[in-house]
């Protein structure tokens, strides 16, 4: 899955510049489409084919990634250089305040490009680094990485524990599984909508603030979910969680590219996903331990 995920995001950054936020939002909407169907489908497959047959069918569905990967084509060398130049200029105009600073940044980019071409003629060509760790000298990237690590510690906990929590408070299995479908259904519309919003001319220079709001909104939604002890309350939580989750999913990589630029995006996304992997490894098991300790320490705190 990791080998599928990262290259697809890099390809989006290669092919799109002006409408990249919308492209990210539409591409990210594929995940909630399947999430909305995964839980009910898993129940049906388990009942009819058992867990072995269910996994076999899921594996067959995942083989469609091969078809999607087959239609991706690298840009020709000349077109790629032209796209990178256009992207850098467009990002400078969009991400910086209008006026002299934007024009100054564009002239600086052109100067850097010309100096690089001159150096390439003078010096022998070197192999491109697989991961450019010099990106950690970028303060914005460091802050982004720390923020994403903290956020991801809890981001995936609700989807993982939600169904079991609903069953614990007496919700039937089918209705409990439907809660994930609600999150996925709301997420389907939240991601493209947020991508369109982030692409607006007066929003895109401030997309980092919109992403910060999405992170804050998601955290507050999780805090309020502690009061949800009925099925109706859980449905309301799922609606708001789906909106905030979709906003985060649509904006996270657009903000990363705005911070590091298209040239270092492939290294940046690789390092960010590596950092996130540790957070995913720590977060959900830690939440499970907290639930277990609460149940052991206070046997009446949770339903039997």
TrEMBL record:
Q: What's the source species for this entry?
A: Chelonia mydas (Green sea-turtle)
**Localisation per UniProt entry:** Membrane
One GO molecular-function annotation for this sequence?
monocarboxylic acid transmembrane transporter activity
Domain of life assignment: Eukaryota
Known PANTHER family for this protein? MONOCARBOXYLATE TRANSPORTER, MONOCARBOXYLATE TRANSPORTER 3
SUPFAM superfamilies per the record?
MFS general substrate transporter (SSF103473)
Question: Pfam families from the entry?
Answer: MFS_1 (PF07690)
InterPro entries noted in UniProt: MFS, MFS_trans_sf, Proton-linked_MCT
Record-level GO cellular component terms: basolateral plasma membrane
| Keywords linked to the UniProt accession | Membrane, Transmembrane, Transmembrane helix
The organism that produces this protein has a lineage beginning with: Eukaryota, Metazoa, Chordata, Craniata, Vertebrata
How does the entry describe its membrane topology? Multi-pass membrane protein
Mind telling me what this protein is named? Answer: Monocarboxylate transporter 3
Which ranges does the record mark as transmembrane? Answer: 21-41, 53-75, 141-166, 178-200, 207-228, 234-253, 265-283
From the UniProt record, list the coiled-coil ranges.
Answer: none
